[in-house]
Amino acid sequence: MASGDKLFLKGNEAIARGALAAGCQCFFGYPITPQNDIPEYLSKALPDRGGAFVQAESEVAAANMLLGATACGVRAMTSSSSPGISLKQEAISYMAGSELPAIIVNMNRGGPGLGDIGPSQGDYFQSTRGGGHGDYRLLVLAPATCQEAYDLTRESFDLAFQYRNPVMILGDAILGQMKEPVLTAPDRPADPAEARDWSLDGAVGRGPRLLKSLFLQDGALADQNRMLQAKYEAMRAEVRWECFETEDAELVVCAYGTIARIAKSAIRKLRKKGLKVGLFRPITLYPFPSEALAKLVKPGRKFLTVEQNLGQMVEDVRLSLCGLATSEFFSIYPGNLPVPDDFDEPIARALGL
Amino acid sequence: MSLYQDVIIAGFGGQGVLLIGNLLAYAGMNQGLNVTYIPVYGAEMRGGTANCTVVLSEEEIGSPVIHRPLSTIIMNRPSLDKFQSRLVDGGVQIVNTSLVDMDLAEQGRIRSVPVAAGEISDKLGDTRMANMVALGAYIQATGVLPLQAVIDSLVNVISASYKHMIPKNAAAIEAGAKAAQ
Q: Is residue A189's pLDDT more than 90?
């Protein structure tokens, strides 16, 4: 595929193609709606390129295969949707503890439990607070368009190797199933030396290496946690966000992913009616763009967080506002398909109209 | 006012509503517009109505999901029941009168454009092209894109092994447009 092609792609396929453009060599997964187009695409494309595609016997197995591949310094990924991601959490914690650069895609569907196959943002806490056991963080990227899904996935492998940390792409059922034009970019294959200093590539001419998350010696685990925390602090350099019409806004709507783009439709409509409403859209959910959001605080300006869950990101929004302002919250229930009309009433209410 | 149009295309599984949704979106993209396409998927596809939503816009597109569309293409009766009341005032609905009683279509609040998509495609020799006839009528009634842009985009949605079907489908689109004049 030549770069600069304009293709009409599903979000899921955009993610798969973004991974290929980044030189992804291995995929391990287990089927679940609404992300099946990712493994479907890669099951053909990866073997064609000399890579490996494995449909594992379970999510648990797939996640541990990912651990194995990334320990060898290979660019590798898995994808799933909410219940499947829950099953992968043990391995995700181990990968974070052993500093492995894995890519994990979660096309969020409704929960809790098996929930439904529709869109949801109910996995925000799970994605940004670790998800598995122990003190760890993933770098979490939340695309809102198919183009962004392609671009962020293409970039995610570099970030994972730069920080030696798992990166999560957090989308949802709408992003996975909708199609949009996507402009492809040049392949950006891995630097062959990117894992030279730590990967398990055979101890020829060097001493043996050990990648592990078990630290039993006195002080060793504390040191490991100190080092990990310093790394998470350093990841703040990657913070990303979008401001839309916030300059003169009396009300700033905070939303991410699909909900943010739907909110944008509502905001455009309300702007035409003369209402001063803007949008703050975190693109990295961890690190959360706290400073950028805090800078939007102004006397009299109000904030409204809208999520398709029962109130998760709103906690980060309120922490970021540091008590200088607060944020109202409006929930679109998982199980309902969000539409722009949903936003009119909560926005009017937050504006005091 | 910059160009903006959204449409829900609805029928039953097998009528090709997703195919013409893709075709319309490709035609928009090929004309340099921003486009989104989203199908209803999952349990709803296996039985009741199949539908998809296409948005065409000069501006960046926010929501790909539309509750109250500016236009619809109604291929069967359940789709009329579901979407007619949601159409905005002044909206356009294309009604496939081969399967929907035109007496049920509102006139006045909205503009209902009848097209006997089934009969027209039968006359062209293939009843499966009713979807293309309906899309031709839609393009004629809304003027959202040049008809030729849609015809030229058939190559994007018809796989290489069915390439020989492109001229027939193009004729169906033209026949639909003519019927809606």
A: no
Interval A49-59 mean pLDDT: 97
Of B29, B38, B62, the CB nearest to A264: B62
On the 0-12 / 13-18 / 19+ scale of CB atoms within 10 A, B85 is exposed
The CATH number linked to A320 is 3.40.50.920
Tell if the pTM clears 0.90, that is, is over it: yes
Q: Which of B38, B60, B65 sits opposite A338 (nearest CB)?
A: B65
Chain A residues within an 8 Å CB radius of B65:
174, 262, 337-339
The torsion defined by the Cα of A20, A21, A25 and A29, in degrees rounded to 10, comes to -30
- How much is the ipTM here? 0.94
A332 touches chain B (CB under 8 A): no
A331/A186 same-domain check: no
pLDDT at B43: 54
**How much is the average pLDDT of A167-183?**
97
Distance in Å from the first CA to the final CA of chain A: 52
Q: Closest to B62 (Cβ–Cβ): which among A8, A118, A340?
A: A340
The nearest CA of chain A is from the CA of B118 a distance in Å of 29
Q: Quick one: average pLDDT of B16-41?
A: 95
Looking at the fold, whether A185 and A315 belong to one and the same domain comes out as no
Looking at the structure of chain A, the number of domains it has is: 2
Model pLDDT, residue B55: 98
Q: Quick one: pLDDT at residue A345?
A: 93
Cβ–Cβ below 8 Å for A339 and B66: yes
pLDDT at B40: 84
A238 and chain B in contact, CB less than 8 A:
no
Q: Would you say residue B44 has pLDDT above 60?
A: no
Residues A255, A294, single domain; the answer is yes
Query: Quick one: CA dihedral B62, B63, B67, B72, positive or negative?
Result: positive
**Nearest CA to A139 among A118, A156, A155, A121?**
A156
Q: Which two tokens stand for residue A302?
A: 């109000």
Where do the domains of chain B lie? 4-179
pLDDT at B48: 67
A8:B29 CB<8 A:
yes
Q: Are residues A225 and A309 in the same domain?
A: no
Confidence label for A225 from pLDDT (cuts 50, 70 and 90): very high
Question: Min CA distance, B174 vs chain A (Å)?
Answer: 25
Give tens-digit pLDDT for A299-309. 999 999 999 99
Instruction: Say yes or no: A100 and A69 in one domain.
Output: yes
Q: Are residues A171 and A311 in the same domain?
A: no
Determine the pLDDT at residue A2: 61
Q: Name the packing angle between helices A59-71 and A89-97 (round to 10°).
A: 20
Q: Pick from A253, A265, A281, A345 the residue to mutate for testing the B interface (most B CBs within 10 Å).
A: A265
Beta bridge pairs of residue A330: A306
Both A179 and A297 in one domain: the answer is no
Query: Touching check for A263 and chain B: CB below 8 Å?
Result: yes
Residues A179 and A96: their CA atoms lie apart, in Å, by 33
Tell me the fold of B4-179: Pyruvate-ferredoxin Oxidoreductase; domain 3 (3.40.920)
Range of the domain at A79: 6-190+213-237
- CATH number, domain at A65? 3.40.50.970
